[in-house]
Amino acid sequence: MNPKSPLFLRLSDRLDVYLRLMRADKPIGTLLLLWPTYWALWLASDGIPDLAVLAAFTIGTFLMRSAGCVINDFADRDFDGAVERTKNRPFAQGRVKKKEALLLTAFLCLLAALCLIPLNHLTWLMSLPALFLALTYPFTKRFFPIPQLYLGLAFSFGIPMAFAAVVGNVPPQAWILFAANVLWTLAYDTVYAMADKEDDLKIGIKTSAITFGRYDIAAVMLCHGGFTLLMAVLGAVIGAAWAYWAAIPIVLLLQYRQYAAIKSRVRQICFETFLANNRIGWVWFTAIFAHTFFAK
Fold this sequence. Notes:
The protein is mainly alpha-helical. Helix content is 75%, strand content 0%.
């Protein structure tokens, strides 16, 4: 196809718009979803996950995160233009139609459903509430005072699904990890919301940063503390090896650095602090990987 032809240019433009809707150029969301899913897969499989299961969850996580981003932009299409960080998104620029976004969401969900084919029936059943949470989260910002808590539930459902796929049931340690990840998500997404607090107040949507008010930083650190405490409880339940416990002081240091950074409440610093949570996810994955290695 001629790269200068009108058809090629049209297709290229649509592809660019769709990839931007999917946040394909911003992998942080996928990573923050993948880390807890990988924690669960490695624990459930004793450090040797089946490659087909690993591939299914990796690809499925990317697709569902992408679908969530598209439906989020659809839900926020009347607000994004008024927010500094989101004013250049496709809907805010008038580059995409509502029908296109809904069709793209459905297509991504269909592709994600295909990833379930090699998995068991329990995993298929658990994908239904996971799908519901992912697609309804963007609309909770209209009425729920702490939508980041709802996001935490959506971002954590890969954990029980991973255990279900590997061992055929969801043991207690899966729910401990689930609860820990809900708190971690609430912590880092509140920091994310702090970056947009001024704009969100103007347009009238609800976020945890607004609900917590001047106690937003305290709430973030309490959630971080609860997250780390539950990861310690998980370590006790699974009889974790020394390498697992070595992660706790490292994570506490990273959390303290986040506290020192967000005290300024500067928009860009809050956003960079949100991004830094990828390190915490990586540290815990390394700890769980090491635990499964040394525990053998």
